[in-house]
């Protein structure tokens, strides 16, 4: 759950 949110945020930041 923790890594999931971090991964999502990281992906959003990288794609942005």
Provide a short characterization of the protein structure.
The protein is built from 1 helix and no strands.
Protein architecture, described:
The chain has 16 residues and is mainly α. The protein is built from 1 helix and no strands. The termini are far apart. The mean pLDDT is 87.
Q: Helix count, per DSSP?
A: 1
Radius of gyration: 7 Å
What percent of residues adopt helix (DSSP H or I)? Answer: over 70%
Q: How many angstroms does the end-to-end distance come to?
A: 23 Å
Main sheet overview? none
Structural class by secondary-structure content: mainly alpha
Tags for this entry?
single chain; 16 residues; mainly alpha; 88% helix; rod-shaped
Which helices and strands, and how do they pair?
Layout: H1 2-15
């Amino acid at each position: 759950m923790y890594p999931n949110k971090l991964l999502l945020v990281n992906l959003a930041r990288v794609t942005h």
